[in-house]
Write a structure and sequence with these properties.
- By secondary structure, the protein is an alpha/beta fold.
- It has 15 helices and 9 strands.
- The chain has 2 domains: about 270 residues, Copper homeostasis (CutC) domain (TIM Barrel, Alpha-Beta Barrel); about 120 residues, no CATH class.
- The strands form 3 sheets. Strands 3-2-1-7 form a 4-stranded parallel β-sheet. A 3-stranded parallel β-sheet has the order 4-5-6, covered by helices on one side.
- β1, α1 and β2 form a beta-alpha-beta unit.
- The two termini are about 15 Å apart.
């Protein structure tokens, strides 16, 4: 079954997680948030009976200063996390400003890897509802363990970086009997290197794992070309052929299309975050932006007024499981423009519906639908003041078609549900 994973990143997202939970399969929770708000997070996960993963925060310390105050001291949430690792992590950050796997002794590498496992298995489980455990017939019934452990991961920029990840994965699997699901975080340029794709897929096939997260940095609608998409389809297919289940850490509708080629899941944020890049500079949190509505016909977020205009001019009101209960016409969106929980719920429901559609339709029908949407909305968006476009629909479509023709050496019509 295809797995939709929602990134739950801070306390303010809690109500949106509650509203969206029935449309998703799992949560991805950053380690620093899990430790800073352990009781709140464990309570929500337990109440929703939601499977989850903990994203280790250690990769953030690799480069830059996103984890530091202006004074140079660790931010509060960073401090709470590194304290869990005792002196190894904090002393290295204080001495060198960052934490790089290769700068640690072999003993300390293993220590940090093992502590990362312990953290993920303990942090929410230890804060699970004590009352429920007191009255349960078996403590195991209320164990709040992650679906799998995500080991510390090193961003792939060079061949050597892959070797670091191999060692981390090996140490993790050796240390724990819990399922292990590594995250392979890579620069986007690497995915276009066929030797890299082949080498990564072969390694994953030999590794003692059954599934893997893939995070291709900056694989977004505006920056990525069809060449990136062709290569991404190929990477997913190669990994799947090795009997390892790939799961995008971040993904748009394109990731749903990739389920046809073996992708087993995708992650996304609440109303945003279909792609992500490494943050190296410390930034103020800032205020929230203007409300945006996920306009399914173009698989993109647009402003509220723009959604109304595009919808009234070109298509019927949204019929997702959320909108069909209250939307009679496109102008009804104005009434919920400031209801972030409702907009988030709509987005999660659409992502569920998109996967259902992919599983029921042939690849040819899906690509023809993208072409029709491009023809219908491309010109309208081009004539508007919107920053949104429909160009990605063509890039996705052509990327898939090129892959099928040149790599699979077959016809689109051969791919049926």
């Amino acid at each position: 079954m295809f797995e939709n994973s929602l990134h739950y990143n801070h306390p303010g997202e809690g109500p949106s997680v509650d509203r969206s939970s029935e449309y998703i399969d799992s949560l991805i929770i950053p380690a620093h948030f899990a430790i800073e708000h352990a009781e709140q997070v464990s309570g929500r996960v337990s109440n929703l009976e939601q499977e989850y993963y903990i994203n280790p925060y250690l990769p953030t310390f690799r480069e830059g200063d996103n984890f530091l105050e202006d004074s140079g001291n660790l931010k509060q949430w960073s401090h709470r996390l590194v304290d869990f690792y005792e002196d190894i992590v904090v002393s290295k950050i204080q001495e060198e400003g960052n934490l790089r796997y290769q700068d640690l002794s072999r003993e300390n590498q293993r220590n940090v890897v093992e502590t990362t496992v312990d953290f993920q298995l303990e942090i929410l489980d230890e804060h699970a509802d004590s009352t429920l455990k007191r009255y349960s017939l078996s403590d195991a019934e209320y164990d709040l363990l992650p679906k799998a452990v995500i080991p510390w991961y090193v961003k792939l920029s060079t061949e050597k970086d892959l070797e670091y990840n191999k060692q981390i994965i090996s140490d993790t699997v050796e240390y724990t009997d819990h399922p292990v699901k590594p995250c392979i975080f890579m620069k986007r340029r690497l995915v276009t290197d066929v030797n890299f794709r082949e080498g990564l897929a072969n390694y994953l096939g030999d590794a003692p794992i059954n599934e893997v997260f893939l995070w291709i940095e900056g694989l977004d609608k505006r920056e990525s070309s069809r060449g990136h998409y062709v290569s991404t389809v190929d990477l997913v297919s190669r990994i799947s052929d090795q009997d390892v289940a790939p799961h995008f850490f971040y993904g748009s509708y394109f990731s749903n299309l990739l389920s046809i080629f073996g992708l087993q899941g995708t992650g996304f944020g609440i109303n945003y975050s279909e792609s992500a890049s490494e943050k190296l500079k410390s930034q103020d949190g800032g205020g929230g932006g203007a409300s945006r509505y996920y306009f399914e016909p173009i698989k993109e977020f647009v402003g509220i007024a723009e959604a109304v205009q595009l919808g009234e001019d070109h298509t019927e009101p949204c019929d997702c499981r959320v909108c069909r209960d209250w939307m009679e016409g496109w102008k009804d969106i104005y009434a919920v423009a400031d209801e972030q929980k409702r907009l988030a719920q709509h987005y999660a429901a659409i992502r569920e519906k998109q996967q259902d559609d992919v599983e029921k339709k042939s690849l040819q029908d899906l690509l023809e639908e993208l072409e029709e949407r491009q023809d219908t909305f491309g010109e309208a968006l081009g004539e508007s003041e919107s920053v949104a476009t429909a160009d990605h629909l063509e890039e996705w479509r052509e990327g898939v078609k090129i892959y099928v023709k040149k790599v699979e050496n077959c016809s689109i019509t051969e791919f049926n549900p």
